[in-house]
Amino acid sequence: MASHGFFTYLRLKLVATLIRFVARMALAQRDRQLPGNIEPQRIRIASREKGRSINADLYYPPSTESSGPGPGKRPVLVNWHGSGFMVPGLGSDRAFCARVAREAGIIVVDADYRKAPECPFPAAVEDVEDALRWILSRPDEFDPNRVAVSGFSAGGNLALVASSSLRHDLSLAGIDISAVIAVYPPTDLSIHARAKTVPDPVKPIPGGIAALLDDCYTPDPATRKDPRVSPSLAEPSLFPNLVAIFTCQGDTLSPEANALADRLQGGKRQVVHHTLPGMPHAFDKGCEEGTPKWEQREFAYSSIIKTLKKQFPAY
Q1: Contact by Cβ (8 Å): 278, 292
Q2: Does the model's pTM come out above 0.90?
Q3: Hey, is 251 helix, strand or coil?
Q4: How far apart (Å, rounded) are the C-alpha atoms in residues 295 and 293?
Q5: 23: buried, middle or exposed (CB in 10 Å: 19+, 13-18, 0-12)?
Q6: What is the pLDDT of residues 44-87, one digit of tens each?
């Protein structure tokens, strides 16, 4: 795959450093309390690259009793955080992951992945595949026949890629991705970032920043038509039987994700699709109780948990 030229990389690296600094300041102001007193266990997942590992947080349900076939086996949800493919953010979905573990009774693996511009496409996708294959290394704990993937923003893109372009090879390895949940994901990077608009934007990602993020992740614009970059361009038949997509009315990324949800409708596949009114991108992070954002977060998270419980009923 293409890499950045030296001076382009230097420019992108400087901008990335500034964006990451601002993002860290914003994260420091957010409420990081975990519901239900579920503390994650930090683990390291072996990468395909010798000597490198992928950080991940493991969330166990309060009960350690088996809910599936075999001793101790449980369904597993693998989640990827938002980042614009640039900003480190492992842990930003802690409230979501802890709540899913507690209320759905399944194990959640919140996995990190490499970021651009230092590691452009396909580095993140490779880390996604490695994290999923790692499930097979713990056969007494995880049920590889009951696997779901989820993600927010860029993480939602990666979850959709995992459940489409990567799904067949993972199935041959013994991993059955039967459900995908994507929350305000970018799904079509072949559309130029500045061309993405909505009638009533709410705190939209500036077009210049969005274009820069795309440049960091995909140095060669031609790769943006690759379904591993733009899951909207993947064949619908590749996706699992359960697809849940949540978009935000005020988010400029919503039209492409809405179009994907519409495209996947029909046949035996169940498509859960909600556009949250008046919400901006990343509305659920740091929202205060009693606010419209809080109410929409409660609706979205509750809907996701209900969907997962229906997909993976307790035996």
Answers
A1: yes
A2: yes
A3: coil
A4: 5
A5: middle
A6: 999 999 999 999 999 999 875 444 444 468 999 999 999 999 99
Count, residues in the chain: 315
Nearest to 181 by CA among 115, 258, 268, 272: 272
What's the pLDDT at 67?
Answer: 42
Q: What is the DSSP string of 96-142?
A: HHHHHHHHH--EEEEE----TTTS-TTHHHHHHHHHHHGGGG-TTTE
Per-residue pLDDT for 88 more than 90? yes
In the chain, the largest separation of any two C-alpha atoms, in whole Å, equals: 57
Q: In angstroms, rounded to a whole number, what is the distance separating the alpha carbons of residues 13 and 26? A: 20
- The reported pLDDT for the residue numbered 285 is 95
Q: Which residue has the higher pLDDT, 7 or 84?
A: 84
Domains and CATH numbers, the chain: 6-311 (3.40.50.1820)
Beta strands 142-152; 242-248: pairing state:
unpaired
Classified as helix, coil or strand, 56 is: strand
- DSSP letter string, 191-228: S-GGG---SS-SSPPPHHHHHHHHHHH-SSGGGGGSTT
State the pLDDT confidence band at 287, using cuts at 50, 70 and 90.
Answer: very high
Average pLDDT, the chain: 92
Active-site amino acid positions: 153, 251, 281
The CA-to-CA distance between both ends of the chain, in Å, stands at 45
* 5, pLDDT greater than 80: no
pLDDT of residue 95: 95
Euclidean distance between CA atoms 286 and 94, whole angstroms: 11
Token pair in block for residue 221? 């614009």
Mean pLDDT, residues 189-210 taken together = 96
d(CA 234, CA 254): 18
What is the C-alpha to C-alpha distance for residues 41 and 138, in angstroms, rounded to an integer? 15
